[in-house]
């Protein structure tokens, strides 16, 4: 799920938007902003703008960015269908995708195990859907929903496994179920990008890319990663 930044030169403000992902992009009333909100906000400040945060769904975020000359997305996967629609500014980090089974169950380390056990749960709109299609997994073998619903469905046995990231699914499962799911080995890794639409000013994109590079060099991103236990 993405974060978006909208900037206007007169106000020097960039609005940072992100779909809700626990500990990655949190709601405003939660105790901490989330890893990507903090990274994005700091990059905006270092680029010479003031950040302002909003939570937005994926589809709305992408539409706004594509049509805008003052918006960027953060925590965004670079998939074939998105490739021509966006300008890819810089990589932030990467996400490892694993198969999760309900607490007390056997871990799954292969797609063959998952498909034999029933439906594979995937967060709605996740970029991992493209990878599953490439592996020959059909739409009929996949169930999509939000993380909280996926946790309940996994516990109830309505799906055989869930394919996602530890950083986002484990907190959701623990919050909903009160226990930790069982996780298997890493099956797939995806880079997380900052991207913009075609109308976004290249000079502003360059400032953000430079800011993020410096944040990596001076240890700021590493400090935040440790803070959130990623």
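Q: What amino acid sequence fits the structure above?
A:
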């Amino acid at each position: 799920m993405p974060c978006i930044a909208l900037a206007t030169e007169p106000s020097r403000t960039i609005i940072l938007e992100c779909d809700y992902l626990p500990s990655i992009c949190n709601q405003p009333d939660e105790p901490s902003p989330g890893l990507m909100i903090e990274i994005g906000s700091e990059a905006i400040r270092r680029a010479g703008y003031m950040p302002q945060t909003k939570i937005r769904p994926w589809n709305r975020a992408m539409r706004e960015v594509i049509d805008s000359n003052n918006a960027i997305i953060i925590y965004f996967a670079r998939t074939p269908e998105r490739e021509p629609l966006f300008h890819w500014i810089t990589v932030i980090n990467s996400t490892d995708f694993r198969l999760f089974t309900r607490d007390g169950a056997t871990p799954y380390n292969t797609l063959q195990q998952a498909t034999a056990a029933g439906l594979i749960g995937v967060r709605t709109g996740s970029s991992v859907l493209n990878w599953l299609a490439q592996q020959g997994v059909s739409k009929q073998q996949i169930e999509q929903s939000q993380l909280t619903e996926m946790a309940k469905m996994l516990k109830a046995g309505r799906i055989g496994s869930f394919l996602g990231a530890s950083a986002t699914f484990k907190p959701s499962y623990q919050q909903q179920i009160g226990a930790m799911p069982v996780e298997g080995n890493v099956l797939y890794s995806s880079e997380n990008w900052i991207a913009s639409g075609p109308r976004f000013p290249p000079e502003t994109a360059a400032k953000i890319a430079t800011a993020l590079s410096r944040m990596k060099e001076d240890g700021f991103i590493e400090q935040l990663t440790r803070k959130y236990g990623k």
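Q: And what stands out in the fold?
A: The longest strand covers residues 87-101.
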